[in-house]
Amino acid sequence: xxxxxxxxxxxxxxxxxxxxxxxxxxxxxxxxxxxxxxxxxxxxxxxxxxxxxxxxxxxxxxxxxxxxxxxxxxxxxxxxxxxxxxxxxxxxxxxxxxxxxxxxxxxxxxxxxxxxxxxxxxxxxxxxxxxxxxxxxxxxxxxxxxxxxxxxxxxxxxxxxxxxxxxxxxxxxxxxxxxxxxxxxxxxxxxxxxxxxxxxxxxxxxxxxxxxxxxxxxxxxxxxxxxxxxxxxxxxxxxxxxxxxxxxxxxxxxxxxxxxxxxxxxxxxxxxxxxxxxxxxxxxxxxxxxxxxxxxxxxxxxx
Length: 303
Known about the structure:
This protein is of the alpha+beta class.
């Protein structure tokens, strides 16, 4: 079981301050020492000293350390939960005897588990770090994270490829496609916007076109149908004159069978308030929406 809360891409890298073995000596190793020098950092966790896979990785990265430091301004630091004395003894022992053979790469001791736990890569049950790698930019932000099985070593080439891609992204603002390598072209990843979303400022600005369309010549028949329907319903409830639509689209009034006081027909020139016109426009819009929905449904059933 590992510690929860693994650091993810884009988050500030947890600050570390540990003792490291560098060239056979104990020195203080901090994240700020690298970022203040405008360096990238490859923080490489490994499970154990005196093991099998770990020395192959450390030797491979150490043999190409100059490619990181001088060509990419990137420091490489290996970190485990071993004590600084264990790491020093391991580094000073020859390869024939299972040691590293005095390599120059920093070996940082996290024997109190603070760093590996802060980065979320501590195997709490075993008390060792996972085989994890974090690439941290000069601003102290985590830009890449990878975690391997304990028995699967990492690739120096792939680490450099990802590092080069991150540097390219920061410098040119373009993305790096699959298998991108230093010197290849990037891909623009920004989407251009075509104007801004425009909204109506008031209810009247939205309703005015509806009203104009409602009273236009092409919509008289629709509007007459709506008014007629409203008056038919009102006649049943209030006993008012009923309006029917004739074959030529005009309105004709006849008295309901129920006696009652007649009400005048609503017309666009009768001086009726704006609220009534608004209501009629809304009714017209609802009828058009229902008609369109029915037509779409009919097409779907035919198919």
